[in-house]
Design a protein that fits this description.
The complex is a heterodimer of chains A (125) and B (328). Chain A is mainly alpha-helical. Chain A has seven helices and no strands. Chain A has one domain: Globin-like (Orthogonal Bundle). The chains are: A mainly alpha (125), B alpha/beta (328). Chains A and B meet through α2 and α3 of A and α7 of B. The complex binds FE2/S2 (inorganic) cluster.
Chain lengths: 125, 328
Amino acid sequence: MSATATTLYEQLGGEAAVNAAVDIFYRKVLDDHRINRFFDHTDMEKQAAKQKAFLTMAFGGPNNYSGADMRRGHAHLVKMGLDDSHFDAVMEHLTGTLRELNVPQNLIDQVAAIAESTRTDVLGR
Amino acid sequence: MSPKKITTADHEIVCQEGESVLDALLREHIDIPYSCKEGACQSCMIRSTDGAPPTNAQKGLKDVLKHQNYFLACLCIPHEDMHVSIGDSPVTFTDGTVTGKELLNPETLLLTIEFDEPLDFYAGQFVNLKRADGLIRSYSIANNRVHAHKLTFHIRRLAGGRFSEWAHQELAVGDKIAVSDPQGLCYYLPNDLEQNMLLVGTGSGLAPLAGIIEEALHHGHRGEIHLYHGSREVDGLYWIDEMRQLAKAHPNFHYTPCVSRGDAPAGITQGRANEVALAALPSLKEWRVYLCGHPEMVNQTKRKAFLKGASFQNIYSDAFHVASSTLE
Ligand code: FES
């Protein structure tokens, strides 16, 4: 890696940014009646840790994202009726969170594109 | 820095200069979960069993986890040789003697067990009690650390509960019983005496909370401490007078007993303990929250406390407390 190359993860502020984002993001998600029922039986502390891993990935940080895990992890939610509208709602909160953290639009677009790339796995298609 | 030796339960590996413990373990094909390799997801958390790990490898961990020498393998560049434990470590048992049996209410037994050697535990942790035939159940420790030779438990009798039924009926003063090492992460550390605390418990979930409160007051905790104890009926509550007296003696301790069914008698609040608490407290920002009791109550309240401003870092509840009220 060259000395000047900075990852999206670093540009966004690394771990501190992920922590701040997880907090804001979850408050939005759990407050949203369109989607919060999907979290009714989730252990939120574990979920927050998973979400940190996900955001690290979405921020372009190092990760071992695996589509198979994403499928497995969301299969029970798909059974509960998880569909595009819910995925869209989550995307909305993700971008809203980044906007709230004053992340520049071009970086938000990059994060959104990475998150968007998980849609087929999350929805089990 | 020279290479360092990392010893696990069944391996001995070498961590090269500048290499993280996680990378060293993975290089040797030792199974350890991980994801971000950046200290964010906490999935690579393991524990040092021979002293404190490098502090920067504990970044972002809950106080109780730091206190028990947990660290993130991906952030850990060892300064010296380390012994680590990955996953659950084996539990050891010590024999204690039953020295007291007393009913707190028609369904809850106060059991006291004493030991020859002092025990290292924190109020709010739990142990496994093992009957001679091997039947094991987890119970929260109800006393504080000041009584190092003694543990007390609140054992609620459950319909068809093999262990609780036996403890109520047959276990006798003078009997020996095997007790595991203390476990769990739902306990008080005196690292911020000004922090406000909310404790919500249902049924015998009062046990760990009472221990935590005693421990906090013993350390001179100065923040407000709010305890909400709930049961369906007044019969299921206990220690009402004791808690009221404690509240009288400590102006920063507030106690609200609640019943969820029927009319509440004078001095008792009508409603579910968690709902009463959340309605009464405007914001939980920077608060410490301890939850014990019915699993659904714990899960719901975690979420609501978070939405009221508490961070997950500051919310304490052991999975066992969740399991204990449904499985016996
Ligand atoms: S792998 Fe994510 S914190 Fe270590």
